Amino acid sequence: MPADTSQNGSKSRTSLTYASAGVDINEKDSFTESLESTMRKTFGPRVIANPGGFAGLFRLDYKKGLFSRNYKDPVLVACCDGVGTKVKLAADMGVFNTVGIDLVAMNVNDLIVQGAEPLIFLDYIAVPTVDKKMLAAIVEGVAEGCKQSGCALLGGETANMPDVYRPGDFDLAGFCVGVVELKRAINPTRVQPGDVVLGLASSGIHSNGYSLVRKVVEHTGLDLGKVYEDALPRAEQQSGRTAKKSKKKNGANGGAKTLGQVLLTPTRIYAGNIVKLQRNYRVKNVISGMAHITGSGLADNLVRSIPKNCDAVIDRATWPVPPVFTFLQKHGNISDEEMKRVFNLGIGYCVIVRKAFAESIKEQLEKLGESVFVIGEVVKGKGLVRER
Amino acid sequence: MPADTSQNGSKSRTSLTYASAGVDINEKDSFTESLESTMRKTFGPRVIANPGGFAGLFRLDYKKGLFSRNYKDPVLVACCDGVGTKVKLAADMGVFNTVGIDLVAMNVNDLIVQGAEPLIFLDYIAVPTVDKKMLAAIVEGVAEGCKQSGCALLGGETANMPDVYRPGDFDLAGFCVGVVELKRAINPTRVQPGDVVLGLASSGIHSNGYSLVRKVVEHTGLDLGKVYEDALPRAEQQSGRTAKKSKKKNGANGGAKTLGQVLLTPTRIYAGNIVKLQRNYRVKNVISGMAHITGSGLADNLVRSIPKNCDAVIDRATWPVPPVFTFLQKHGNISDEEMKRVFNLGIGYCVIVRKAFAESIKEQLEKLGESVFVIGEVVKGKGLVRER
């Protein structure tokens, strides 16, 4: 490189630097190092230490005997997802330690639909400027999600992108890899008439529909910092006088959640329990299909797991719609059809099982901590999801 | 769900929909389907068809005999990266079919540093609204990058995020998974004094430093649509009169690249050639280290591949700095130190090899189409990269 280039033709005498363009390399490097201890907390023995490496290393068959007993024909399963504009709600509230859990949830819940066990997670975080505290909180959430779902946070990228993201804004993307034994890989052809559809309760809105959620909040002047009794989960609602009294305290209601907190509730991670459940049925073909209920709602996700010669018939009276959905519908004057197309309305994950095992599987999942409803059945049909 | 909820307490009588909040589910679904044929072009026999699935399936040991001959202790390798604010330049120019190549390049070039062979790629595209033409162009670029690097585009996510992204803006993240044999996994402890550092030419700025690039362009009033003779690659520069004449044509210079086109040149993908090279040295320990030169420049990336008891001594006179860097330095009045810290300055990838094999490896890489320079050597030291 020429040592001191002439300035002919240049309209600038100011010396430009990367920092003046909004990117401070030193700042970013020191942050990246500080994340390593958070990531290490998610490492099992299958992760190969590779400090300063360009990529993460993971040993699938760390214990050869164990691995080859479980996997004769291992198939890698991979998926990618973000959390949509839930990041915008998190940014508005200045709460950054839960969207990482959402990010892992959106990915591992997709992965387990194929019968897979999650192994590896990586995250992409894009920000306008490096705010260490915010980034550390996000990555802590990601690591927490990884611990909950039993996968290693093997790597990630923090992209410093002034101009693309406005101050306070950010985006998240996640990527998950797992493994499934070929003949146990779930596919729609297994589902047959007579099977029962079990619905696992969601923890709230999860990570879809937030552009509409935020539109309702803005349009109707709802206050994210206020406690709305009728938006709280039923178990947290109080009766009569106490409720009115606590509303006045505006968020300091003996721990009652503000609307913002209710809306920011992390997406439930089903991975741990579904993987445990499947371990009980290594030989028997008992679980015939699964579905993660995300954007487009119950019907449009469940239909992906139904073969062309069957219908799933769902009875929406079999589970309670959490109050937060009714609250948003009322305030946004949203039609029933739109609600069903956008939100999970209380069911976050479906497991389709052989009828003879339905009760036992429901009990096992409940023992593991899930709330489970028998929401429908599979009949002969045309590959549709219908309502009873 | 209540059929017709009362509007008590609601300030809105307008019925809100997801589409009115900027998200059209139907639009997105039809687009997703149209992408499948683009993705299928990258599929090899190891990809298991899974239409409508929640995750992609990939069979690592599709040919058991071949796989077990090459891999006794297979290790999964995974990484994640974006293309930084090069997306902003692409958006400004309205050219969307090359940033996907950049995205794959940034990931696979990281992955091969560990000695790995890329297998699976997934992309995350975030946009304010679904613009099918733009999204199709992006995914075509991603698929092209996957073909160049021999990996399958197994899945991806298109996130529709009004409010986070301004009209015209977008972001990209990519994830790559590969496999390496445990004892062939490259790590810094292999490098030893006497080794030679080979530098592989970059195709231009690649995908780092674009916040500074764009700052220079804006600050000095450079015109992205104009041909600047001194920004063109040397092979494309014309001499004397012809050059002056063609400048006047302002972009119609018999195909001469505009500044915008020079800046948008896709990142070179080294994966194919590096994987081929490594196949020639399955037994011999000839390649001792590698480095992908990204953000922070040559020294700060090469140092990650140097053990604590060695230094790499680089002679910057051994390769030509491409004109685009000198052009930007001149116009932005950027210091030499800053240029070295931000840009690759002509070397996009390093291969550290045993001295006895350096000439042969250089020739092999050149036959495969790389421009290769002997840029330095490894000596006893303290884990630093120094200049001669």
Which range best describes the helical content of chain A: under 10%, 10-25%, 25-40%, 40-55%, 55-70% or over 70%? 25-40%
Strand proportion of chain A:
15-25%
Uncertain regions spanning at least 5 consecutive residues of chain A: 1-12, 240-252
Order of helices and strands of chain A: HEEHEHHEHEEEHHHHEHEHHEHEE
Mean pLDDT over the full residue set of chain A: 89
Q: How would you describe the oligomerization state of the chains in this entry?
A: homodimer
Q: Describe the global form of chain A.
A: globular
Q: Calculate the terminal CA-CA distance of chain A, rounded to whole Å.
A: 74 Å
* Strand order, largest beta sheet of chain A: 8-10-7-11-9-12
Tell me the structural class of chain A.
alpha+beta
**Radius of gyration of chain A from the CA trace?**
24 Å
DSSP summary: helix tally of chain A: 13
Mind describing the biggest β-sheet of chain A? Answer: 6 strands, mixed
- How many β-strand runs of chain A? 12
Of all chain pairs, the largest interface belongs to: A-B, 115 and 115 residues
